[in-house]
Design a protein that fits this description.
Elements lengths: L12 H6 L2 E2 L6 H6 L9 E4 L3 E5 L5 E9 L2 E2 L9 H21 L6 E5 L12 E8 L7 H4 L2
Antiparallel strand pairs: 1-5, 2-3, 3-4, 4-7, 6-7
The chain binds zinc ion (2 copies).
One zinc ion binds next to loops.
Protein name: HIT domain-containing protein
Pfam family, one: DcpS_C
Keywords: Hydrolase, Nucleotide-binding
Length: 147
């Protein structure tokens, strides 16, 4: 069976198009987390039938969570102007806000953002949710992070 490429910059154009939207993609780390495959050790902060939330493995702030759809959608560009997709994105933001309000109610600022292609770290749509202050990370300038 052909293995789909999930990491944005590595794949051929064809593989990328093939994996833009699918129930799940083999070898995608976020699909593994969303489907709770036995090899995935990530603990979920939240889960329902549409989205799951978990901690970023490389936190950039006091609290840094990721919200992902369970369906494999590669980037914001793969979203459609449909009521379903609009609901999905609003739901992701709401879940993120609720978690930060619960876990970092006194934070100076909450920030939410999607990557814009081609600046994807993982080729599965994810909403970054940060409660400031930022954690200094010499390897990743903040300005680059917020593309
Ligand atoms: Zn995926
Ligand atoms: Zn990211």
């Amino acid at each position: 069976m052909k293995k789909s490429v999930c990491f944005g910059l590595g794949g051929s154009r064809f593989a990328k198009r093939m994996s833009e939207r699918a129930p799940m993609v083999d070898g995608c780390v976020f699909c593994d987390i969303a489907r709770r495959t036995p090899t995935s050790t990530t603990s979920l902060l939240y889960a329902d039938d549409k989205v799951v939330a978990f901690r970023d493995i490389n936190p950039s702030a006091f609290r840094h969570y990721l919200i992902i759809p369970i369906e494999h959608i590669s980037t914001v560009k793969s979203l459609q102007r449909t009521e379903d997709d609009y609901q999905l994105v609003s739901h992701m933001v709401k879940v993120g806000k609720d978690l930060l309000n619960r876990d970092a109610p006194n934070s100076e600022e909450h920030r939410f953002g999607f990557h814009q292609p081609p600046f994807n770290s993982v080729d599965h749509l994810h909403l970054h949710c940060l409660a400031l202050p930022f954690v200094p990370r010499p390897d990743v300038p903040i300005a680059d992070f917020w593309h």
